[in-house]
Amino acid sequence: QVPRAPSQPLAGSESRRFSNKHSKKALKASLTLGILLGMFFVAWLPFFVTNVAQAVCGCVPAGFFDVLTWLGYCNSTMNPIIYPLFMRDFKRAMGKFLPCCRRSGEPRPSAISLSMRNSNSGPRAATSLKNVL
Question: What is the pLDDT of residues 65-89, one digit of tens each?
């Protein structure tokens, strides 16, 4: 077999594999977005329709209006449930910081490691943990 030069276009199977992987990600992202928007409409649309009806005719009982308001508020509780179900990166991030979601044997990151990871520059000799302690 002759190695392929970098300037040559991708082979057919490699191109198909890349496009298949990309299309799976796009499909999963659109599915997640569709579910989030669907839940939003199911939760808030009855509230907004009733709100307009209340403004026009004033015929909506206060208790019913309160129930629809709380249905809309429940949408906010659905998002932390929907995101981990469909997004692996979100699930990993939650697992790092919430003890209930952490895998056994996985240590919780310390504040020092978080600050070093989030800083733009790497550890410097004068500010390394060894020199501080």
Answer: 999 999 999 988 888 788 777 777 7
pLDDT of residue 1: 55
In the chain, domain spans: 16-95
- Cβ within 8 Å of residue 87, ≥6 positions away: 32
Q: Compute the distance between CA of residue 44 and CA of residue 68 in angstroms, rounded to an integer.
A: 8
Residue 84, C-beta contacts closer than 8 angstroms, at least 6 positions apart: 90, 91, 94, 101
| Nearest alpha-carbon partner for 45 in 27, 69, 15, 29 | 69
CB atoms within 10 A of CB 53: 13
Residue type (1 letter), 13? S
What is the distance between the alpha carbons of residues 44 and 38, in angstroms, rounded to a whole number?
10
CA distance linking residue 126 with residue 39, whole number of Å: 51
Cβ contact 43:71 at 8 Å? yes
CA dihedral 11, 16, 19, 22 (to 10 degrees): -110
